[in-house]
Amino acid sequence: MNRDEIQKLAKLARLTIAESQADEVATSIGNVLNLVDQLAAADTDNVAPMAHPLDAVQVLRPDEVTEPDVREKMQAISPATQDGLFLVPKVID
Amino acid sequence: MHNYTVAQLVKQLQNKDVSSRELTQHYLDRIDAHDQELNSFITVTAEQALASADAADKRIAQGDAPALCGLPIAHKDIFCTEGVLTSCGSKMLDNFIAPYNATLVDNYEQVGIVSLGKTNMDEFAMGSSNESSFYGPVKNPWVTDCVPGGSSGGSAAAVAARLAPAATATDTGGSIRQPAALCGVSGLKPTYGRVSRYGMIAFASSLDQAGLMAQSAEDIALLLGPMAGHDPKDSTSVNEPVDDYTRLLNQPLSGLRIGIPEEYFGEGLNSGIETCVRDAIKQLEALGATTKAIRLPHTQLSVPAYYVIAPAECSANLSRFDGVRYGHRCEDPKDLDDLYCRTRSEGFGDEVKRRIMVGAYALSAGYYDAYYAKAQKARRLIQQDFVTAFQDVDLIVGPTTPSPTFEFGSKGKDPVAMYLEDIYTIATSLAGLPGMSIPCGLVDNKPVGLQIIGNYFNEAKMLGAAHQFQLATDFHTLAPANFA
Fold it and tell me: Is residue A63 part of a domain?
C-alpha cells in the first residue's frame, strides 16, 4: 500500500486521510492485508462459500403496510430538515 | 447486596425482602461511587431506572410479576433505547437519541427488567481493549492500568465491579467472551440468530449476535430466555422455539463428552493461562465428564478470514452514516461529496476508518475473488472443522484468550497485534456457534477465562456444564478487592 493507493481507497470509502497520516495509515492497512494474505495458502478448491452461518434463505412476509408514519419522530433527530424534507447541499446546478 | 447473583436477587425481589427501588438505588449509588474511575458507563439513566423500578414494585405487589421483574441490569450502548443516547461508542452517534427500542430492550422491559444505563464499548464494537471508544477507555476493575477487553468492555467491567448484576453485550468475533475472560465474569454469545439484531447497531451482520454477561452461568440461564426468540423485524433471527435454558443446570456431568482442541494450546498461549485451563479441565473430569483431544485443523485461517469478512460487511453497514438523516454532520458542507467525506472523517475514529477501508479494498473490483470469496470459502472450512468435531463430542473446551489483560497502549500501533487477542474466539463466531467464557482462576491477580463452545442451539448444555463447574469451584465469586 502506498500513499496514492490509500488516498484512492479513502475516496472510495468517502473518507479523508490527511497527507501527514497517509504513511501511517498505509503501513497499518498493509499489515492487515499481510495478515489476510495468509488465506492464499488455503486449499479451497470445491469448497462452497459460506455467506451465513445457518445457510438461511431470505424469508418473505406478506406485502402489507405495517409501518406507521414516523416522519416527525425520525426528523426530530435529523441534523437538517425543512418542510418535512432532509436537507442536503445542492446536488444539481 | 451487590455480591448477590441474579438468581439470589430475583428471589429476594419476589419474597419482597428488597424492593426493586432499593436495589436499583443501591446500584446507582455504586455507579456514582466507582464509575468515575472505571468509565464503564456512557450514560446512566437514574431517573428512568427508578421509575421502572417503581413500576416493577407495583407488579410484584400485585403478585403476577414475571420472574425477573424488578432486576436492574445495564445495556451495552449498541442497543437502541428510545429517548436515550445510543452512541455505539462513536462521535458519529454522540447526538443520537434513539427513536425506538431494540427488540431485546423491549423484551426486557416487558418482563420488568430495569435498565440502569448504557455501557461503554469500543467504537462500533470494533476493538478488543475498549481503547477505541470515543468516550475514553474503560479500566479493568482488577488492575486499573489494564484494559477490560472489548468490545463489550464496559459491560464486563460493570459486572466485575458489581455496578450491575448483569449486562447485555454483543459478539462479532469475541466481544463478549474476551472481555468476560479479562474481567473475570461469565459471558455467553448464543448461536447466531438466536437473539434479534433489530435495533442493535450493525457491525458485521453475518456475525453479530447479542448475549449476556453476569457473575454466573445460572444467572445467564435465567436471563437468556426472555432475550431470545424469533423476531419478524430481523429476518436472520431463527424461527425455532426458545429453550428452557435452566433445564440442564442440575444435570450431573457424567457421560458428557468434552473435546480439547490441540490448536488452542499451541505457541502463544500464556503458561499461567494454560495451567488454569488444564486444571479446569481436570475439574470437569472429576465431575464425571470424559475428555478427548480433537483437531480443528483450519483454526489458523480464522483470524485472516475474519479480517476480510468483518471489514467487508462493516464497510457496507457503515455507509449509512452520511450526515443526512441522523448522527454527526460536518459544518457548512460545500457539496454532497464534502458532506459525506468530512462527516465520516470527523465522526469515525482510526480503527473504524481502517476497517472500512480494508473492507472497501476487499470488495473492490479485481480483488473480490482473492479476498471476499476466498474468505467465505475458508469460513466454510472452519465451520466444517466444528461439524466434524461435534460428531464425537458434546462440548469443546479451551482457553478464551491467549493472555490475560494487558496495559493500555501496550499493543502499539500495529492493529494485527490486537486482532490476535481474539484468536480462540473468532472461529466460533465465523461458524455461528454458541460460545461462553467462565472464570477459571487468576494469573498475577488477572482473571483467566475458560471457553466452552457448544453445537448450534446447545446453550442449555453449555450453561449446565458451566453451572456444575461453578457449583464445584469459587472462581466466579471472586471480585476485585478495590470495588468490594
Answer: no
Distance (Å, whole) CA A54 – CA B191: 10
In a domain, A64, yes or no: no
Global ipTM: 0.95
Give first-to-last CA distance, chain A, whole Å.
37
Tell me: pLDDT of B204 over 90. Answer: yes
Strand runs (DSSP E) across B325-461, as ranges?
395-399, 435-443, 446-454
Total count of domains within chain A: 1
**Nearest CB partner across the interface for A42, out of B342, B378, B430:** B378
* Closest alpha carbon to B263 in B399, B138, B158, B356: B399
Residue B72: strand pairing partners: B114
Q: What is the pTM for the complete model shown?
A: 0.97
Query: To which H or E segment does residue A85 belong?
Result: strand A85-86
What are the residues whose beta carbons fall under 8 Å from the beta carbon of B15, sequence distance 6 or more? none
pLDDT at A56 over 80: no
pLDDT at B65: 96
Residue A32's domain spans which residues? 1-40
Q: Do B357 and A9 touch (CB under 8 A)?
A: yes
Pairing of strands B209-214, B186-189: antiparallel
What CATH architecture applies to the domain B6-252?
Answer: Alpha-Beta Complex (3.90)
Distance from CA of A31 to the nearest CA of B (A): 7
Sequence-distant (6+) residues with CB within 8 A of B65 are B14, B56, B59, B112
